[in-house]
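pinging the channel bc i need a second pair of eyes. not urgent but kinda urgent?? the chain im working w is below, pasted from the shared doc
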Amino acid sequence: MLPGNLKKISLFLERLPGIGEKTANRLAFFLLKLPEKDLEEFAFNIANLKKKTKMCKNCFNLTEEETCLICQDKRRDQGLIVVVESPLDVISFETANIFQGVYHVLHGRIDPLNRVGPEDIKIKELLERVERLVTSSDKFLKEIILATNLDMEGEATALYIKNKIEEIKKKKNVNFEITRLAYGLPMGANLEYADYMTLKKALENRIRF
């Protein structure tokens, strides 16, 4: 049996995604063995996590300031916006270092089965941002890239956003691209194991070679 305080730590860690009872116990013992100074620093950061972390007022990525470092970066193309579901998606793009535009984080996707509608995520804020950009004299909106997940809910979210942005384009009489991330066969894939829908999308999104 674990001592009471250690058991409480283990039970809390067990609530984290992908952490089972044995892993939680090992992590609890690891924390116990940390030097007092490291443990105090860890506890301080945990205690202040909610207080210090906020949403960027522009793109809704996570930050400790009013606007995130990406939105502040003058080298970024402000007219090129990738729309993602989660801050973790931003990390994926940034880790790969493949994109030099900016982001808009929805913090979810439309999911009727779980009672999540367009009003429950940051779609309204995206549409307001688009309207600001197309009416601003010093900014030029080039492209909105819809990078929601490639599942049923992600597709529904992307389609809803596309239709709403098309309405803005028509109302404001402006022209910019609305694109969707391509999808199909991953690198190194074997056709023998590809499912019907993957092959269908790969064909639809084929490029000149």
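so The two ends are 64 Å apart (CA to CA). and The chain has a mean pLDDT of 91. — does that match what u expected or am i reading it wrong
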